[in-house]
Predict the 3D structure of the following.
Amino acid sequence: MSPEKIETICSIADRFCNGFLRFSTRSNVEFSVDDEAKVEPLIEAIRNELGFPVGGTDPSISNIAHTQGWLHCNLPATDAASAVKALMDDLIEEFENERLPQRVKITTSCCQINCGRHADIGIIVQHQHPPRINYDNMQICDLPKVVAICPAAAIRPAVVNGSPSVEVVPEKCMYCGVCHGQCPSMEIRDADTDTLSIWVGGKGANTRSGPSLMRLAVWGLPNNPPRWPEVSKAVRTILTAYREDAKDWERVGEWIERIGWHRFFEKIGFAFTKYHIEDGPNAMWTYNRSTQVRI
Ligand code: SF4
């Protein structure tokens, strides 16, 4: 953001909010006033002086959170930040108008590990094969850590070309890419085969119902920069069905829970495949579902 914009933000906060404002975790700038009469003049000032859209409150989509993308992340397979720009251009009316049943949080992630967080709608990269190991550079990695970091125990020690190294058991690998973060020689990214998937129904809050996990709704969408039109279209389809069918105050996951997982696919019109079969609902009762973070 330019120094001029920051100066203008401070000036608006001084005039309307006694100098206070808040940068939220979703990259929103929040101005809080103590008098309702200040609201409309404040909105006018933000639009005219800053040129920023105003929205993201109550039943609308809030600013889309994203992971770091090509510039900063060490294992990105897409540019989540640019995908947010493309999506927000398409969904700006849902940001500015409070016309959804409840707030909708959307995230995009440039790898499958998804540090972009849990959300009502999550857009996540999917890899399609196990990592290819670059044995020429394998020695730069801390091999025991590479073996230990795999959540599926798919990496095991091996001697390759006479040197200590590792190998991957393809049948065990779930293509998550965690090992690539630990060791760049475990190359999982593949521009020819990586795709994008859309997950729905995640919620971290305890409001009305407990926290819920996201579920796979759409998979195999092309990773298609710079505008990712297939992803925008799929997200809009889900949002339209949600707006037309959910009750007031229902989050996306609560709506799906009420109508049923199969009915959700009837509403959005996407194919229900074997990958959508829910094989973990009972595991919910054994997971740690507390919203407290344990270290
Ligand atoms: Fe293990 Fe994931 Fe790497 Fe496969 S991609 S070897 S499951 S860490």
